[in-house]
Amino acid sequence: MFFIAGPCVIESESLVLDTFAELQEITNNLGIEYIAKSAFTAPGIEEGLKIL
Asked: Which regions form coiled coils (predicted)?
């Protein structure tokens, strides 16, 4: 079993990293594999890909 989640749109690098870290901690505690996902369109393709 695995869990795919993350913010739908990148608003800032800190928001994405904080969200991914929180979800990683929750899924670790539950014994579930976590796969991070997000769209990179808000800051633009180049900046969004750098953040991801």
From this structure: none
